[in-house]
Write a structure and sequence with these properties.
Layout lengths: L1 H4 L3 H23 L2 H18 L10 H30 L10 H20 L2 H12 L4 H7 L4 H20 L1
């Protein structure tokens, strides 16, 4: 470390080789993420190189000094991670999963089958008008034109057809 303090790149490389495993272990234990620990190790060694002149052997061993640099960096990363998590969760509204549950899908499937069965029991023209209006989205005017039927008749077919469907599904 003292040679690194004097700016020796060769000695710094030896210092890196000798202490990488220990520092990586400290960072991994704190961060619990291999990629983040590897990145933090690189930052730690950059800081060791840049701050080498401030190392004072009278205050403690070089390994302890480097571990404190690694530890402080890991703490900064964990704080930043926590702040990002708070921002993400605090600023977003609660979002519910609106997809039907398997039970609800089964119920809906049964209801659709019953509705289709009831639709088949209707007069064919009324059933066709209901399909075109409610499944295809055709307007009353479109239905009247496409089925060559007066508009009021289409309205009557739809009203009576829906009433018959309701009775069939409910009964």
């Amino acid at each position: 470390m003292l040679a690194t303090k004097r700016g020796s790149q060769r000695d710094f490389k030896r210092l890196v080789d000798a202490s990488s495993a220990r520092l990586y272990g400290v960072l991994l234990a704190m961060l619990r993420d291999r990629d983040q620990a590897r990145d933090a190790l690189q930052v730690t060694f950059a800081r060791v190189w840049l701050r080498a002149k401030s190392f004072d052997p009278d205050r403690g061993p070089a390994e302890v000094w480097m571990i404190s640099i690694a530890r402080n960096h890991a703490i900064d990363l964990m704080r930043a991670r926590k702040r990002r998590a708070e921002v993400v969760t605090d600023d977003l509204p609660e979002i519910r999963d609106r997809a039907p549950t398997p039970e609800r899908r089964a119920i809906i499937g049964g209801e659709v089958r019953k509705l289709m069965s009831c639709l088949e029991k209707l007069d064919p023209k009324r059933a066709q008008a209901i399909r075109m209006a409610y499944l295809e989205g055709a307007s009353y005017e479109d239905l009247a034109e496409r089925m060559s039927t007066p508009l009021n008749t289409i309205r009557t077919w739809l009203r009576r057809g829906l009433s018959a469907l309701k009775d069939c599904v409910d009964g």
